[in-house]
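Memo to structure team: turn this sequence into structure tokens by end of day. - J.P.
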Amino acid sequence: MEERQIEQNRNYISQNLPLKTSLSNHQGSHWQPQQLSEPSFYYFAYGSCMCPVDLKRSLGENTHHYVIGTGVVKGYRLGFYRRSLRRNCGALDIVPDPSSYVEGVLYNLPWRLSDLLDEREEIPCNGYRHEFVNVYHGRQIYRNVRTYVVVDKLEEELAPNDWYLNVVIRGAVTCGLSEEYRWKLFHHMYQLQQKSKSIELK
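Reply from structure team:
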């Protein structure tokens, strides 16, 4: 990624950071989720689906009002262990790690959108599968929440492209993930891209 784009990402993150940075102060309290009168399911997004605008592309309707807020899943860590067939780059996955945690966005989605979400996550072609996790949101715990994990994981992480990096960061900023976590996420993706470039130059 060019230095100009890196600086743009840094500026975007810095300009949108909340004043407080602890996990307990980043629970998406500014969201006002819609009370659904139809069957629904809880969904934890940790990658590109954190961005409601991008999620709309797949689900065909606005998703902002389905956001409950930020959430934390303990005992997992992020990794790019999937090659996205659509984007031809690394895509996010979560893998068990008792010493780590993952921040993301908790949605309450109508059940009628379930199949469309599965299609986005490439379940029909065995890309991802359902995983059910406990999500900590403020002082509440949402149990058996649906998320997605890669089926056939790569042995080594594969770098995301610039588009994927930007969507993930914008989702993290828009939905209020903690400052520390956002920087950690950004640097992880940037380092993977730099490593990929150094290999290509050899």
